Amino acid sequence: xxxxxxxxxxxxxxxxxxxxxxxLSTAKGYKSGRRRVPRPVxxxxxxxRQRRYLGEEWSGWLINGESIVDPDGNSTTLGQLRAYWIxxxxxxxxARLLGPDHQRRYYDALELPALACETPPLALTRPVGxxxxxxxxxxxxxxxxxxxxxxxxxxxxxxxx
Length: 161
Hints:
By secondary structure, this protein is mostly helical. It has helices at 3-6, 13-20, 24-32, 39-49, 78-98, 100-109, 139-151, 153-160; strands at 62-64, 67-69, 75-77.
């Protein structure tokens, strides 16, 4: 078995055929090493193996430069996605501090089932070694925090309703 055919080892021939856009017999040939694998097929397969694709559940979503665009045309940048976890934690904590009614509105706005309102739904913590959530370590981090604050405006207005 050649080095290239080892790329397909452990994967069903049907999956290889579907992902690479080839027939089942061609995929079996790639797996056995009887057929030479063209560069475009290798590229497609490497995208699959490295999980650098959007699955069927992402139908209608697009990648546009450094942002992802939802089916409604709303664009989300890489920085916004990176700040998402802190925005959600801050908003959940804010709703918890305002009381059970606001917590329910928070979860309704997210279309999530309401959790018990006696405890905070998300802890205001970061992964071990990541520093405290309120520590601004650089101007870049401060800029992200400011952008995150602007993003919470929509959720705040839903909480006030």
